[in-house]
Amino acid sequence: MLPVVALVGRPNVGKSTLFNRLTNTRDALVADYPGLTRDRKYGQAKFEKRQFIVVDTGGITGDEEGIDAEMAQQSLLAIEEADVVLFLVDARAGLLPADQGIADHLRRINKKVFVVANKVDGIDGDSESAEFYSLGLGAIKQIAAAHGRGISQLLQDALKPL
Ligand code: GDP
Ligand code: MG
After folding, report:
1. Which of 22, 62, 67, 159 has the fewest CB within 10 Å, making it most exposed?
2. Which residues bind GTP 1 (predicted)?
């Protein structure tokens, strides 16, 4: 069984952009991975000869109803089956209540979590991502998923304990 890396965060932070970059595709192939539910979007990725599964999710906003509730449920399940969670936030939009809600959940579970501040292209990444320390989930990884920046360093750290 390959390690599973889940991408979670509120909508529009860049989860799918990162997913596509990690899996080198616009729309990942969904294969049969035993033990994984098939509703979420799975892709296979490789970093420095290490293969892993990436799971994209629709997003969590915190106070969901209807289709959003379904989406949030998918995210919670993805977190459950993950070995590592990449919790994406938007360095341009800054810290929003929905981010806090997700962080509250992630702090309660016993799982390796990395806070990933995306979209640091063209801004001062250090100062724009400083506020995410208040999420209480440790160090902040800075990336620009759309440009491939910071991805190697992120994967190096995220896959290390697996
Ligand atoms: P998702 O809803 O979390 O899956 O987010 P998407 O991957 O669909 O991206 C949401 C928006 O953010 C899109 O318009 C992307 O082009 C944009 N985006 C994603 N990554 C970056 C980035 O690294 N830099 C910038 N400036 N925009 C990005
Ligand atoms: Mg998406």
Report:
1. 67
2. 9-16, 56-60, 118-121
From ligand 1's centre to the CA of 152, what distance in Å? 18
* 14 annotated binding-site participant: yes
Q: Which domain holds residue 133?
A: 4-159
Instruction: Read off the DSSP letter of residue 144.
Output: B
For the segment 83-107, what is each residue's pLDDT rounded down to a tens digit? 999 999 999 999 999 899 899 999 9
* ipTM field: 0.99
CA 124, CA 46: separation in Å to the nearest integer? 29
Give the model's pLDDT for residue 68.
66
CA of 91 to the centre of ligand 1 (A): 11
What does the alpha-carbon distance between residue 78 and residue 52 come to, in Å, rounded to a whole number?
14
What is the value of pTM for the model shown? 0.92
Q: Which residues of 4-27 are buried (b: 16+ CB within 10 A; e: fewer)?
A: bbbbbbbeebbbbbbbbbbbeeee
